[in-house]
Every structure is written in C-alpha cells, then in structure tokens.
C-alpha cells in the first residue's frame, strides 16, 4: 500500500503495520572471532612495541659506551643478510625468478645507501646541537609514539600510513643519534633504525603470510629480547612492559570476543535503499 505524503492520511505519521518487523534482521554481517586467531593477529602490535623497545635499548647502550658501534654494525649486517635469505626462501618459484633479476639492484641500492648515510653522518651528529637535550628527547618520544600510531597493522583504517610511520621513526633516530658521542655512532644508529623500522616489517609480513609458525617464534624471540634488554635498564620498566604485552596479546582478544556477545546491529526496511547490479547497469 502506497500513500501520498502531501495529503492528509487517516493514520498518524509514525504508523507502521504489523508486517513492519517481519523484515527485521540482526547481526547478519557480524564477524565472529576465534580467540587464538585474534591472539595471532595481535602479534603485529607485539612486534612493533618490541621493535621500539629494542631500538631504545640499543641507543642507551651506545650512549653509555657499553656497546661498540663496530660490533653493532657487524651484527646488523649479518642479521640483514639472514633476513634477505629468508625473504628469498619464502618466495615461490615466480618470486624467486623475479628476485634473481633484482638481487644485483638490491646490492647496489644497499651500497649507495650505506655510503650516503656514512658520508652524511657528521651532519646527523651536529644537526640538533642548538636544541636542548630535553627537547630532543621529548621529540624522539613523540615521534616513536607517532610511529606506533600510524603504523600499518594490516587494517583498512584511514590513519594507517607506512610512509608517515617510517618517516617519524627515522626522525626519532636522527634526534637520538645526535646525542651520541661520535659520528660513527650516529651512522650506526641510523642504519639500525632503517633495519628495524623499514626492512623488518617487510620480512615480518612475508613470514606471517608464508610461515605462520616461524612468525610466532620470531614474535616470541623479539618480545623476550625486548624484555631482557629493558630488564637490564629497569626492573620496574620491564615488569610494566611485560604487563602491557600480556594485556595486548591475551586480555584484549578475550575482551573483544566477550564484547561480541553484546553486539546487536539491526537491519530492516527503514535502511537506505541499495542499487542492485542489474539496475546499476541499466542506469549506466
């Protein structure tokens, strides 16, 4: 039954017949989560938090003179080669053929980047000399927080931006490197930032897609490494960081699944009209 809206009708404006609620649907598009699947997805957040923690611990050890830059450079170079091999092994046959073509280009790019960074390391060392140390530390903290906020965790959120996340992380590394004793320390710190914040996320996504078990193992290794490094600096900080990791990986997934029980999205004839595929083709 159709009614003319501009004419007076024998029923009130908010009148609905008995068949109105027969077309009511609830939670037809609701996604049901499994606990261990959510725990697995939370490992991306765990790895990023651990990466930032490891980066800060490395900087503190270099600033205190407890970590030789030559040893860190050798360790970083060896880990980069291992990561490159793992990335090559996890590719399929087609990916390996493509990687064989770009292997020499990758090597040239790495040489150019290392040379360029080493040449400009004195500039990085003296870039923020006129800025107070407290301001530099505050900027580094805010930039690392921005890296965690804007990092692409695999969602379609508009706030995610790989470019912005990487840029603020590199800026934080430059701020911290400027307070190290020598230009060599600044060079090694910038290289470590690129390895942790640029190269590692690429390998991380590859491991997650191809070998989930090894991805879980690497996540645990990163988390325990961050906890061990932080424990050497502050026991209270290590305990708080451990509580944060447990909350993100265990409590938050449980709370998310528990909240799904209270989810109630309703759909019915009052929703906006949807253009069907056949009608859209006719209109076009």
Automatic annotation (TrEMBL):
Its main location: membrane. InterPro entries: Plno_GlcNAc_GPI2 (IPR009450). One of its GO terms (biological process) is GPI anchor biosynthetic process. Belongs to the PIGC family. It is found in: Membrane. This is Phosphatidylinositol glycan anchor biosynthesis class C. The chain crosses the membrane at residues 35-62, 68-89, 110-128, 134-151, 158-180, 186-203, 215-233, 239-257. One of its GO terms (cellular component) is glycosylphosphatidylinositol-N-acetylglucosaminyltransferase (GPI-GnT) complex. Pathway: Glycolipid biosynthesis; glycosylphosphatidylinositol-anchor biosynthesis. The keyword Metal-binding does not apply.
């Amino acid at each position: 039954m159709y009614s003319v809206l501009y004419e007076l009708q024998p029923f009130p404006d908010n009148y609905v017949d008995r068949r109105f609620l027969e077309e009511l649907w609830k939670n037809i598009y609701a996604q049901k989560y499994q606990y261990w699947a959510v725990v697995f997805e939370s490992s991306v957040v765990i790895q990023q938090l651990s990466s930032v923690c490891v980066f800060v611990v490395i900087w503190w050890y270099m600033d205190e003179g407890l970590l030789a830059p030559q040893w860190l450079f050798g360790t970083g170079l060896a880990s980069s080669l291992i990561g490159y091999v793992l990335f090559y092994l996890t590719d399929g046959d087609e990916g390996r053929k493509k990687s064989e073509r770009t292997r020499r280009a990758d090597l040239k790019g790495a040489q150019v980047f290392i040379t360029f960074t080493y040449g400009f390391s004195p500039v990085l060392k003296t870039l923020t000399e006129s800025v107070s140390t407290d301001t530099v530390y505050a900027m580094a903290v805010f930039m690392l927080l921005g890296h965690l906020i804007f990092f692409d965790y695999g969602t379609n959120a508009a706030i995610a931006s790989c470019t912005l996340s990487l840029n603020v992380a590199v800026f934080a590394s430059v701020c911290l490197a400027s307070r190290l004793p020598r230009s060599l320390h600044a060079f090694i710190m910038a290289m470590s930032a690129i390895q942790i914040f640029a190269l590692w996320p690429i390998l991380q996504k590859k491991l997650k897609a191809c070998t989930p078990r090894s991805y879980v193992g690497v996540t645990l290794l990163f988390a325990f490494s961050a906890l061990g490094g932080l424990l050497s600096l502050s026991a209270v900080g290590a305990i708080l960081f451990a509580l944060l990791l447990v909350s993100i990986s265990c409590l938050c997934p449980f709370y998310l699944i528990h909240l799904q029980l209270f989810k109630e999205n309703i759909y019915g004839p009052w929703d906006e009209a949807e253009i069907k595929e056949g009608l859209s083709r006719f209109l076009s």
